[in-house]
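Key idea: predict the complex, not the pieces.
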Amino acid sequence: MIWNPQYETMPRPQLEKLQLERLQALVARVYEKVPFYRQALQERDLTPESIKSLADLSRLPFTVKQDFRDNYPLGLVAVPMDQVCRVHASSGTTGKPVVAPYTANDLRMWTEVMARSLTCAGMGKDDVMQNAYGYGLFTGGLGFHYGGERVGATVIPTSTGNTKRQLMLLQDLGTTVITCTPSYSLILAEAALEMGVDLRLSKLRLGIMGAEPWSEQMRAEIEAKLPIQAIDIYGLTEVVGPGVSVECPHKCGMHIFEDHFLPEIVDPATGEPLPYGQVGELVITTLTKEALPVIRFRTRDIASLNPEPCECGRTLVRMSRIAGRTDDMLIIRGVNVFPSQIESVLLEVEGVEPHYLIIVDRERHLDDLEIWVEVSEAVFSDEMRKMEALQQKVKQEMEGTLGIGARIKLVEPRSLARTEGKAKRVVDRREL
Amino acid sequence: MKAKQVSIFAENKPGRLVAILEALRAYDINIRALSISEGADFGIARMILSDPDKGAQALREAGFTVRETTVIQKEMPDRPGGLLETVAPLAEAGINIEYFYAFLEPTPGKATIVFKVSDPDRAEEVLGK
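Result:
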């Protein structure tokens, strides 16, 4: 099934014409409304009239995550606040989140691409969708919610956690589609096993999963343990949230909704555009967003693009599974974590030295974050309760900044390996 | 009387106490008293050493995090009620003991207690030197 055949199966020449028109309008809009972009364009002697073909896209400046931080909270917004209907946010690198406002049209567009995504994944109006993405500032919960309603499915907004209740509702309400992170689907599978619930007897048949990196091996494991097809979906707060791209049941790459999101692959080192098929950093330009239009956003996600038409009939370009990151960002339980955030927290706790080691593990399918912190003489006390208070303080500050729980282990100095130059700060033991 | 205690941060894993003891032996330092307080991942070893300054230096050289703290060391009679008589004045003066350990003296009938209080000067006043 295709939700919007007009756009999803548009012949590529026609699609590219539409993209160019939208790109030209976008550049004109940000030039007029967003001082940050006007300045960046002027520095390159560009005006909206400079964009004559899609090839001119590569002349436009990049937007990077730091630009969101420098313009926190609303410096990149292109509309007056009274036109903003909703605001989401994602975790930032120094405690400041990326703030993502939406106009009414933005929300309509997002709902549209989510409806397309869910349909593309194989969901329809007769389905019962249990949405176990977090509701709140995170774009996952509400993004899937409104998409599911738009498709006409029955939506159960369970949000994250409370696995026993998830399983009870899943059985009692006849859930056919589960939307959650891939790792949570395995937690559900394991909990069902422990509770003696045979999910093969349930109506569950489809899982639409994203918000964290996963692999084909993990898909095989999920599909072996749950009676579902597991479909990959991609998105990010800076661009819109989930709904940027999604797999169809052929599972041969994620179809990017190119009438709204213009993708490129660039060399992460030089920023030079790479041809189709080559692996590099995914860059996205939002063609239609009003409140937070973004030009050439460097996603830091490593992927490649394939423009060949898909068996499903869509003419949209397909992106590969995310093969990694160009930076040191970790995605832990769906939350973005940068080692620099951990360092800044340690520096804020008086006397704690920023010598640390981050250990990420996946125990029983749940990401586990442990931070080893060296104890310097400045914080060492001969009283155990003071040391435990220190441990507790670091833990609380860490959770406040990162937004996820962490185990803090105090270690002896020099027990963390010092290497020449950049110290090894992260041990990621997860096998995806 | 006041005494200098050397405290050492040590991870709770095999071999750490041995590493501490080796560092002290290398400098020919004797341990007069020792107590270890344990947490889940780490412990704190507290020691009265024959030469606290040299001992602390030896441990630092061996890479340990070390803290020197002023504690009260007090001789007490080694007989029933001996400890009670010794610490009762602190309670009367409202002085709280943070932690505490004791060792026997070579002299028969004598023991020594070592303890940490928030205000060692006052404790010394109350107990008498």
